[in-house]
Amino acid sequence: MKKINIALCGVGNVGSSFIDLLFTSREKIKSNFDIEINLTLIGSRKGEIANNDFQGQIERDILKVPLHKDIDIVVELIGGTDISYELAKLALENNKHFVTANKALIAEKGPELFKLASKQSLHIGFEASVGGGIPIIRTLRDGLISNKINWFKGILNGTSNYILSKMYLEDQTYEDALKSAQELGFAEPDPTFDIDGTDSSQKTAILSFLSFNGEVSPLKIYKEGIDKIESLDLEYGKELGFSIKPLSIGVNNKDELFLGTFPSFIKKHEILANVNFETNVIEINSANLNSTAYQGPGAGGYPTSTSVINDILDIAKGKIFDYSNLLNPIEISDFDAFKTSRYLRLMVTDEPGVVAEISKLIAEKGLSIDNLIQKENKNQENIIPIIIVLGECSEKISKSLIHDLEKLSQVREPVQHIRFID
Amino acid sequence: MKKINIALCGVGNVGSSFIDLLFTSREKIKSNFDIEINLTLIGSRKGEIANNDFQGQIERDILKVPLHKDIDIVVELIGGTDISYELAKLALENNKHFVTANKALIAEKGPELFKLASKQSLHIGFEASVGGGIPIIRTLRDGLISNKINWFKGILNGTSNYILSKMYLEDQTYEDALKSAQELGFAEPDPTFDIDGTDSSQKTAILSFLSFNGEVSPLKIYKEGIDKIESLDLEYGKELGFSIKPLSIGVNNKDELFLGTFPSFIKKHEILANVNFETNVIEINSANLNSTAYQGPGAGGYPTSTSVINDILDIAKGKIFDYSNLLNPIEISDFDAFKTSRYLRLMVTDEPGVVAEISKLIAEKGLSIDNLIQKENKNQENIIPIIIVLGECSEKISKSLIHDLEKLSQVREPVQHIRFID
Question: B29 to chain A: nearest residue by CA?
Fold first, then answer.
């Protein structure tokens, strides 16, 4: 029987679930793997430990946890990039493996930590940092490594997916959907990082690192939040046969590499279009496998803890992966060159000649109109929506078009712009 | 650099793809894992090796392959359970690891081979045996082992899914859909094992073994083929809001364990309902993760070979898993006790009182009718279809009902019976 001693730092929601899960699965792990995981130390400034099975020590100075001699692995379930970053460095410097669910830490400090771990032949486990309970990190690392990845598409933020699903499937307003997400615990009291794309961009950076084998800062990910989406757009999208999803994409075409996260229209029959509410999904297209997709709970105490335990088991089994080998220099393309077809919604004064003026501007840019639908006025007097489906064009040219359209006197509100992603 | 020597037996479609993939991915494997895979020997009775990069030896007597001294792993891509079974035993007896894509072999002879491998601390890799390129075996083994699996549902046979998708989405007849599958190479010239559920039952047995940790013979899997499905049923299913899929299920409820493979109606918005044509998918529901789903190409040379290479890499990395630990005694429930709601289609003489007689029979069995729709006669004079959606009831009682219904003089054809699976 192999014995491994771990220290847990952080006993919030995820930390408490982790303790429970560890004690309930210990026997199964022993009998299937011949491995005994001992939680000998918990680092927590003031948190109480509710689980009575825990008989170990409690360390109130978290940064002293890595100094304890009999620990093999430090598990970090605190979050943020302040104390958790110090903790990670101290753990590695003191010859402890490090396991975390912290996407911000891995996205921002991963490269530095991976190099530090490599020097000491230590392992950093971060399966729980993307897709919660979905085993996507090990799949990319172990299952697809002999493969060239062409692109990935994912729904990586459960809060955003929940809100857009509520709006799309149940005709809720953005505000009601957000409130319901907060009541159910899918959204934080301050949901900014979920809604503005920050959380997704960190996860996109981690997936990009594993998919394209290079250092990717989350700041390099093009980012748009879901808060600009209106019910009107969902209604028109539905009519056109599209669902809306908070997508994260990494697309590797020849010499181009586009990384971004933004709400997108996708065809209703596509697999991602049917992944609703808080569920996450990652679809990966690779040279030899075509598309594979992985779907499951993207957050929550037990799913996250399942991934953390799997990382611990990897280390116990001697599966040490040197992620610093994947830190190659790669060039991320300027998102301005990203091409796709686009949905524009213009709110215009209902007067003769307006469609002609708009069409003229589009033609002048050399762009094609795949569809133009003039809608009925619903609320505002004398203002009508015009929906335009633009053929494939770059970000740059569409921005310039939108700029010109907004200068037209008949265009009364900022132009809504949503990408179609195939 | 760790070096590992492999011998490949079988150079058909999958074997040839494997050779190609191995040579094109060698450099990436070297740089990412520090592992060199050398294909030093090919066993093939008379096949030609098209790839010019292969510089090794050819052994025309396949059963002599495991006797070669410098081989670490024997890779079997022959199929069937005759020579491949002999080869597996010889490989293990001669201290070679064994990697295969052969579901029949693992489903039928797995337990014996796992015990043999365990004695010698050898590994048997069979990632490619279920779900082709989908990394489902490693996910069940590594990712979910600290977890109790409640159920799995899968589409495991690409041919059946292709045929039913063509019928459902493109209104093709069964015969035309089968012909198109054969032309595209998704169905064998003799498609019996794909269509009658044999292939799916073998894969179901393997997933059940890994999910419920017990020895499961494919003969214990309840099995129905897709050849009884008629276009009429798909049309009515569509009206009711259901798609039809060749499902394989393993359901573990308290003291019951139901294993089966049969065409099923599933709600249109469910994830499995949107996995079409030759694509496979496996959805797993577990205590701590709720549902996760894994989707991808279920067959084909490159997807299958990708899984085979991942198995080889596991062995090279020292990841030896003793599957004999999972061979616990488990009891599989009699499928007669399986409860679900059901679709019945009766072709009856169009005369007064027929619905009353049918309803009476159903009431006598204590069963509830959720829906009864009398359809218009389309082709046959004076014969009309009646669709009945039965509330949840066991196989046993539904069989007895069908038996009684077929004795009614007004019922002119065998009753069609399709399960609804939630």
Answer: A146
